[in-house]
Amino acid sequence: MVFGVFRKMFGGKNAAGRNKDLPVISEAAGSGDDGVDSERRSRFEDFERETRERLEAQSHEMPGQAYFSQLQALQESISDRRYMDAATAARKSLPLIRKWLEDPRGNGKRLSLSMPALTQGGTMLAITGDRKGLAMLHDLVSEFDHLEEYRADAEKHLAAIDLFNAIRKAVAAKPGILQNKMKSEVGAEDGRLVSNLISWLEKAGEITRAKNGKTYALYVDGVEMSAKDASAIYTEPPRPGSHQARSKPGKLIELNLDKLTLLPLPPSPEAWSSQFTLPATSETFEDAEGVWRELTVEAIAPADRPDPAFRKHFTTRGGVLSFDDLAKSEASLGAPGAVMFTSEQDGTPMIERLERPIYALDVHPEGQGFATRSKTNILTVYGEDLKVDFETDLSATPEVAAGRRRLDLDGEGGILWGEPHLALNCIALSPNRDRYLYTHVDEAWCIDRDGKPLWGVRMPERPVETYHQTFELGGIGGHTGTAVEIEEALEEFGLALPVTPDEIRRQYRGLVRKLHPDLSPGNEERMKAVNAAYETLTGASHDDLQGKGSAEDLLTFSATVTFMTGGGPDRLQAAAFSGRGDSVLLGTSQGRVLRIDASGKPIALYDVGSAPIRVLETDRYLYIQTFTRLYVLEGDRLVGLQDCTTKCDLLVDEGLVLLVENKGVRVLTEAGRLLGVALTKAPIRRAGIEDGVLVVETRTHRGRFSGLVA
Predict the structure, then answer these.
(1) In what side-by-side order are the strands of the sheet with 614-617?
(2) How far apart are CA 313 and CA 35, in angstroms?
(3) What's the CA angle centered on 425, arms 422 and 428, to 5 degrees?
(4) Contact criterion met (CB below 8 Å) for 181 and 147
(5) Phi/psi zone of residue 684: left (φ > 0), alpha (ψ -120 to 50 degrees), beta?
(6) For the chain, which terminal residue's Cβ has fewer other Cβ atoms within 10 angstroms, N or C?
(7) Quick one: DSSP state of residue 386?
(8) If we measure between CA atoms, which residue out of 17, 2, 19, 154 comes closest to residue 68?
(9) Which residues pair with 295 in a beta bridge?
């Protein structure tokens, strides 16, 4: 994606002018003073000109358009498994990289870009036997210190060309040889490298792997397999076609969000500057804060240990759904994976094989059954018996065809969204499975189970100038605080959770009237503290707040100045049906969550500052999870806030919320208030609530945390 953006910024063939790809400045309602507005426009125009000049001056710090064209060819060829073409693109990239590094116009400055031509490209040169190309790559990274980090990879690529040949010969000589024997068979020291090369040969169609116990039996393509090994090979069923009878797209609503009240929440950072982690423990299990009356630990007999292959868990109305999405369990033999349902009533697991590989997955917490999307864009809906309810080909819909034409996904627009499995992103299933939703870049379509389009909506293009006027000062680079800092900021305002954005704004205005030096001299330091708190709570710019000349400026300022790095579609990143299934929630790449009613009408808009990765709603609460934070809302009131890590599973079970991390579980009330933390020494395999007891399992032990003190 990055190279597509750069290509468009610096001379893409059909780019619609540079202005569209440079930072855009938008301004909403200001003071109404023409002189002030004129001064602001002048200042904004100066900024835009300076930014354009700076970007053009920096353009020589990165490779040119020819390199990015080859990079696109490399990645498309790898995706299509045309490895000879990929090797050709990698080889053509090498002199372009050299030219970039030797170009004196860069003044010795070079951006530290990821260089797939030197990593994946090296693998392509090795698998195709291009020794001359590998020698060119090795010489290049050895000559330029800027490429020092790729030197170890270059050595591995030189060794890989012989390892590839050794693997081919060994498998041809011994059909059915087990993969875990290949390290010694080819005389290699690095077993992981051997396994990785075998995987590449499988993708190239040269070798077939058949699941055999905890390893694989290997065959050269075309060699007859044993009956046992042949039965372990999965073949995807034929495409089902679209169940829509229409040849024309359904009615699309062009969303106009300027009449919606935007609810800006304390912004979530894209990532934490220092890693947010739970404390470590040397105990098998530990009640970190002493909030449970009893903790019992038991060893799990080998036969009863949780299968780590079932690594994704979702709580539902009747129990827990667990998924083996990588086909590593015995249950998935001959299938692309398996699903297990564990009933809350008797605890007896029910296991079924999946019909197609999982690329996207949706489980509604109030529903029964689930939906998956394969990489080939087949939507498969499963019933409560874990068997297929119905299937449809999402890529064959008239809506997707129209979207591809609109965005030119088969042409220049395909730089960013051309892969069909990337353009089609989210899926969601209603609680009673009578409707489903899918998103295509910036559009969402709700379809009933018989294939009738119910509604479709499209997000406004970025940047959106009109609906910021309600209240938003984010986007300039305001401070994003931790949950503790947000609580302290609320305390500075004399507030506490639950709180609404309007309450924060009203309190701020009241404090400005009371403390601003224009009105009450001697309160400069307190006014700075109030502005800092406001910055934390809203994402307002520190420079902007401190730059106001008077109290009146602060009180009347309602303009939004947003610096965006480009326009274009606001990609939909998350989707879910509400708790009752009567509305839909859509999360966008710009950090906004939009509520849509049953007719496709927008009715609420939240802003969390960064793209949501999961949206979940029960009958009472809305949960919005980003890579760094969990928000809990009740209506327009923020009732709970928790910081979290990138890899943090969200479960809502028996009136409690669990944030499950690698070696710890935070237990919250439904409203997001922290109750306790359960820590483990070993990685967690499974966690959940059983009759009010928190049960946490590692590979070898089970901990039961009971008697939670409220």
Answers:
(1) 614-617, 622-625, 629-634, 637-643
(2) 59
(3) 160
(4) no
(5) beta
(6) C
(7) S
(8) 2
(9) 705
Give the DSSP H or E segment for 55: helix 34-58
In the chain, the amino acid numbered 447 is I
Q: Which tokens is 111 given? A: 């951006």
Q: Which residues contact 614 (CB under 8 A, 6 or more apart)?
A: 574, 576, 623, 624, 625, 650
Q: What is the DSSP letter of 18?
A: G
Quote the pLDDT of residue 543.
52
Measured between alpha carbons, how far is 30 from 701 in angstroms, rounded to an integer?
A: 61
CB atoms inside a 10 Å sphere around CB 14: 9
| Omega before 357 within 30 of 0, i.e. cis | no
Mean pLDDT calculated for residue range 457-476: 51
Q: Give yes or no for a contact between 160 and 130, defined as CB atoms under 8 angstroms apart.
A: no
How far apart (Å, rounded) are the C-alpha atoms in residues 220 and 233?
Answer: 14
Q: Which helix (H) or strand (E) holds 226?
A: none
Which residues are CB-contacts of 39 (< 8 A; sequence separation ≥ 6)?
Answer: none
Instruction: Answer for the pair 325, 340: CB distance below 8 angstroms, yes or no.
Output: no
pLDDT digits (tens, 9 = 90+) for 402-420: 998 888 887 665 555 556 5
Gap between the Cα atoms of 653 and 618, Å rounded: 11
Alpha-carbon gap, residue 138 to 125, rounded angstroms: 12
Hey, what are 296's tokens? 């019992």
Rg (CA), the chain: 28
CA distances 325 to 155, 204, 305, 354, 675, Å, are 34, 22, 19, 9, 32
What gap in Å lies between CA 141 and CA 558, rounded to an integer?
A: 53
User: pTM score, two decimals?
Assistant: 0.77
123 φ, ψ (degrees, to nearest 5): -65, -40
Q: Are 508 and 264 in contact (CB under 8 A)?
A: no
Considering only residues 274 and 266, tell me which one the structure prediction assigns the higher pLDDT.
266
Rounded to an integer, what distance in angstroms lies between the CA atom of residue 364 and that of residue 581?
A: 9
- Residues 72-96: what's their mean pLDDT? 94
Q: How far apart are the first and last CA of the chain?
A: 48
The Cα 702–Cα 685 span in angstroms is 10
3 state DSSP class of 26: strand
CB 670 within 8 A of CB 655: yes
The Cα–Cα gap between 708 and 692 comes to 8
> In this predicted model, what pLDDT tens digit does every residue of 540-595 receive, in sequence order?
755 555 544 444 444 444 333 333 344 578 899 999 999 889 999 999 998 999 99
Give SS3 for 446: strand
Phi, psi of 53 (to 5 degrees): -65, -40
CA 472/CA 258 separation, integer angstroms: 13
